[in-house]
Amino acid sequence: MNDTENGSAASPRIIALANQKGGVGKTTTAINLAAALATSGLKVLLVDMDPQGNASTGLGVGYDARRSGTYAMLEDGARAAAVVQPSAVPGLSLIAADTELAGAELELVMADRREYRLHDALAQIGADYDTILIDCPPSLGLLTLNALVAAQSVIVPLQCEFFALEGISQLVRTVNSVRQSLNTALKLDGIVLTMYDRRNNLSELVADDARSFFGDRVMETLIPRNIRISEAQSHGQPVMNYDHRSSGSLAYQALASEVVDRLGLHAARKGKAS
């Protein structure tokens, strides 16, 4: 039996948000999907595995409050429960990316169970949450590998721009390789089209190409270009806290509902409550 098993009523669905290409709305989706899932009633943990720490910033966590986070958990053996901190969104907690995380990629190379560090750490606290979202760095290195080994689901934010589909095939190969060798439970469960602009024919073409290639793994919900999303991040808030009536907020709420239905997260919640 593999080290990673499917989620159940007693353990959360762990979802890695991954794309080795930067600037595709990955962290924005991680922040706002986590907040929307928490708002829907799920107990959510967001793990910031990106050394840039943008998910931590987007939830209003300053650098001084990140001295003990993902690096301490992966490298120093800190218990996950000891590095979790609350956010301003009820039901949403965070393990922040501390400043030393940038060095973890190299330091993990010689570590024991280097691919399983995150898996082992989250196993200590998994039953406390309905779902755990992992914001991966824009690369396919050891930090992302740790996320893929810990997760059951991968969701890929895909920008509606030229060259958007380039590189996705490499990520798909990586997911398949991890599933074959390290984590048989891992599945590519969704492609989220981001920065969609209905006024731009290119957005429609990219969406059509993605649906023709990935089929029903492409989420129905489209995340639009919306200035409120960017403004919210600059204020350290999810967009639904900043402007809950904006098109960006409504889109992420719709995406959360789709993710709940697609991955059966509501069933996990009911199972815990019984």
UniProtKB/TrEMBL annotation:
Any matching Pfam family: AAA_31
Residues crossing the lipid bilayer are: none
Q: Which positions fall inside the AAA domain? A: 13-187
The secretion signal range is none
* Function per UniProt: Involved in chromosome partition. Localize to both poles of the predivisional cell following completion of DNA replication.
Give the protein's recorded name.
Answer: Chromosome partitioning protein ParA
> Which species does the entry assign this protein to?
Komagataeibacter xylinus NBRC 13693
